[in-house]
Amino acid sequence: MTVNPSIMAQLLSLSLCSGIQNQSSDQQSPFSSTDHDATQLFGSLLAMMMNDSYSTSGSGRSIPSERASSASSISSTNSDQMLWQQLADTLPALNIADSSKKSDSGYDMIIQEMSTKYSVPAPLIRSVIDTESGGNPSATSSSGAMGLMQLMPSTAADLGVTNPYDPAQNIEAGTRYLSQLIKRYNGDNRLALAAYNAGSGAVQKYGGIPPFPETQAYVSKVLSKVQQTYV
């Protein structure tokens, strides 16, 4: 029979997820009771594949039967395709955890390098990136903040950034700026993050985290991500 590699890969992923999720009683397997049709079709296809294996030679090549007509071969192929299509239609959408949220996929090397260079914890850098831009290097806010770490034009210029949408430049500048703020507030990450969001002037004016809902939520969100997601 003809194997659809895309659907098989999805099935293997679902099976893996199912095995992992079944270890927890409060999570539902991808092959739940509502996906009974998918389970049956998968079983049928596996049975057909196993039966086909008995009609192969030692070299793994199929030995066609002289009595098999071209019409029956076409019918078999069409049947295979129909089963694969039915199975694809019944498969639940994959919802495998996005590792980019934990590692900011593609930026780990830059983050680690800047973490070492500017003595800023890598988890904190990752959390700021995720909170600021969701990992989108092309992000631009309504206020003009740019790139992964949402640098304001004046901040980017002060830090010598020539292209704020370049991940390497953006992460280095953002980390350098964050390092300056952490040192300014004697290692108090809460005040450093508040200044990163609302500006040092606002922190100085209120003698701490400004009473702005956005800033208070920002500080809480970043630190929460550091503890729950990246550690």
From TrEMBL:
It comes from the Bacteria. InterPro entries: Lysozyme-like_dom_sf (IPR023346), Transglyc_AS (IPR000189), Transglycosylase_SLT_dom_1 (IPR008258). Residues 61-76 have a biased composition (Low complexity). Residues 56-76 are annotated as: Disordered. SUPFAM superfamilies: Lysozyme-like (SSF53955). PROSITE patterns: TRANSGLYCOSYLASE. It holds the Pfam family SLT. Belongs to the transglycosylase Slt family. This is Putative murein lytic transglycosylase YjbJ. It comes from Sporolactobacillus terrae.
